[in-house]
Amino acid sequence: MKILVTHSSSFDYRKELYLLIRNSDLNNEYLFILSHEADIQVFTRPLMERREINLQIAEISYPSTGQGIEMGWANVYKIPVISIYKKGSKYPGSVKLVTSEILEYSDNDEMINKLSKSIKNYEN
What we know:
Layout: E1 2-6, H1 13-22, H2 26-29, E2 31-34, H3 44-49, E3 55-59, H4 65-76, E4 81-86, H5 95-98, E5 101-105, H6 108-120
Parallel strand pairs: 1-2, 1-3, 3-4, 4-5
């Protein structure tokens, strides 16, 4: 399963998101596309159009217009979206319109554990 991870650029996503995913067992089970991991730009819409993405994980603790657009594309192409947010963060109500599931987490371990359980629901 190919999983696209989206997020705001207004936090240290490499440390607070990418590193956690890469160092978890999830990284051995699924192919994660971390669009800002390398210094090359990943164009996500064509991947969605060609159905090369099976699931999107959206870290919504911080506002991001670009991520909202990507979530809208996923909705159009019938790609499920799991939204995650850190406890105490506020996210826009419109997220509920384009997401399949919203998960709150209080720490890194809880985030990975909840994602692990949730992703299994979307396996073919």
